[in-house]
Each structure stands twice: as structure tokens, then as C-alpha cells.
Design goal:
This protein is an alpha/beta fold. Helices cover 51% and strands 13% of the residues. The protein has a single domain, classed as 3-Layer(aba) Sandwich (Rossmann fold). Helix 1 runs parallel beside helix 3, helix 2 crosses helix 8 and helix 3 packs antiparallel against helix 5.
């Protein structure tokens, strides 16, 4: 089974547009098409973003539904053990976001097969230590047609 790290931007996008590719990815995960890999820093970031008032308003998803989702992914994902050693990967340019390094570190520790992101800094890498970094469309192509 494919092990994938979903960047926070992909999961948040799935809450914003029910018919988009990120939503299809989350539905595929919920149906068991792949295993999600997480780390505590990624889960904390996801919870922080999804619980922002402006995101709750934009998604029209209740705080309870958001909490249920976070609980589900927290219980079912493959978790990287703590502490998570974060190698400096994408912070070469001052415009880069060093928080993106956590995504790559999670993938390495969880022995993920792929990283799915919409972040241009991560996508520019194309791969790290043999782990492909792809956008949502490419990941859906990897998964193949829904069953």
C-alpha cells in the first residue's frame, strides 16, 4: 500500500472545495486507497489552520466536524516518532518556508512513498532522498481510477 505525506495545504484545500482534487485525495484516504503519514508537528499545524475562524467560515464545516476529522487522521495515520529530526531542505532561499522541512522529515522517518503538496518550494525539489514530491493531480494519477 502507498504511504503518503499530505502537506497541510492539500488537506485544508479539501475542506475548501468539496469537488476538487484535494477532496478526492482525502476521500481516497478515507476509503483505504493509501496510508497517510503524519508527525505531531504536521498534525499541530493542520489543527491550527483548520481551526482558524476564517477557515471555519470559508469551509462551512463546523468545529465539531473539524475535530472529528483531526481525531480520525490522528488515530489512523502512520505517525513519525518524536522527536522528529528536521533536516534543512528547502530553506536555502530566504523566501522559502523552513516549516516545509517538517514535511520532508516526516516522509523520511515514516518511509513514505510519496509527498503530496501544492507548495511551490517543495514541488520544485521534485524528490528528496528518493521520495517523489508531487502535486494533487499527479498523486491521483498514481492512485489510478477510484474503485
Amino acid at each position: 500500500m502507498i504511504r503518503a505525506v499530505l502537506d497541510t495545504n492539500v488537506v485544508v484545500s479539501s475542506f475548501l472545495t468539496a469537488s476538487g482534487m484535494p477532496s478526492r485525495i482525502v476521500r481516497a484516504w478515507k476509503s483505504g486507497a493509501f496510508e497517510a503519514c503524519l508527525s505531531q508537528p504536521l498534525l499541530d499545524e493542520l489543527a491550527g489552520v483548520l481551526c482558524r475562524p476564517e477557515i471555519l467560515r470559508a469551509t462551512r464545516v463546523s468545529a465539531d466536524e473539524t475535530a472529528e476529522f483531526l481525531d480520525l487522521i490522528g488515530k489512523t495515520a502512520i505517525f513519525a516518532p518524536e522527536p522528529l529530526a528536521v533536516p534543512p531542505v528547502v530553506a536555502d532561499d530566504p523566501a522559502d518556508d523552513p516549516a516545509d522541512d517538517v514535511v520532508v522529515a516526516t516522509a523520511l522517518v515514516c518511509e513514505a512513498d510519496i509527498v503530496v503538496s501544492g507548495d511551490h518550494h517543495l514541488l520544485a525539489l521534485r524528490e528528496y532522498e528518493g521520495i517523489p514530491i508531487v502535486n494533487p493531480r499527479q498523486f491521483l494519477e498514481t492512485l489510478g481510477p477510484p474503485e
